[in-house]
Amino acid sequence: LCMDKFRTNNFLRSKGFAVPNNYLLSKESWLSCDEANRKTFLENLLKDNNLTLPLVIKPHDDGCSVMVSKATTLPELHKTLTEFFTSTKNAVLLEELIIGVELTVGVVGSDEVIALPPSMTVAKGGILSMEEKFLPGAGENQTPAPLSTQTLELVKKTMVDVFKAIAGQGYSRIDCFYQTAQQSPTGKERVVILEINTVPALTPATCLFHQAAEVGMKPMDLIDKIVELGLERHRQQHLNVAIGTAKTVVQDNQEESVTTTTPASSEKMSFKDPADNLTMKLF
């Protein structure tokens, strides 16, 4: 599910979580539209789907800020989409640009889930680049994020609820925005979910290690915990298979027992001799 940002956001929206307005535009729809009509096409698309510029343009099935850009005008959107569809991608996600504090939060657990202290992401160009995410010294994350304790707890609770909603296992990193009541179109503070990173990188520059340190976990402590959760899930899967197999064997044995213990007095066997057409019945 989470490898498809469009499906994930629609699922989370159905569960009551705040997500950006978005639209998945297929390559076929874009290329089938004449160049002369694309301005009108885009205007109608935005109007029909409650989208306004600026917009974030990105793949719905990729990560690590690959091919992510921002369009602030209609000509810029037109140019970005034209360039995007020169790639092998068959669809592009057009997403509302959320204004607020951009956060990224590690979540760890399976049955018992905890959210680590959120980090505030600082994007120099407005959109976080791959280099800022992974190259040491290229990006900036402030951990914990400079928000009130009450706000941080709201963010962490939301992350745990999201992780449970998607039936998450092990660990992930969830990207989101925190909006104050003044920034939110609802007039109330809220946490807007951007995307769920299913297997986030654990490079030396990753904010997950910084977040873990805030709760007293060394880098190897976090890695050990992730490995333990994976092994536990592996054991549980094998146990479930074994239990399922055992139930099948018991059921088969019970059915066989019923078949073989039918009272002899109720059994009838017929033999037909083709020579004399005699039928014998044994009682």
Short account of what is shown:
The protein is of the alpha+beta class. Helix content is 39%, strand content 23%. A hairpin with a 3-residue loop joins strand 5 and strand 6.
Query: How would you state the average pLDDT, rounded?
Result: 86
Biggest sheet: strands, sense, closure?
A: 6 strands, antiparallel
Helix/strand-derived category reads alpha+beta
Overall, the morphology is globular
- What percent of the residues sit in helical stretches (DSSP H or I)? 25-40%
Number of strands: 12
How would you characterize the overall build of this protein?
It contains 8 helices and 12 strands. The chain has helices at 5-14, 27-32, 38-48, 74-84, 130-134, 149-165, 207-214, 219-260, and strands at residues 22-26, 55-58, 69-71, 91-96, 101-109, 113-115, 119-122, 140-142, 170-179, 190-197, 269-273, 278-282. The chain is globular and about 75 Å long.
Give structural attributes.
alpha+beta, 8 helices, 12 strands
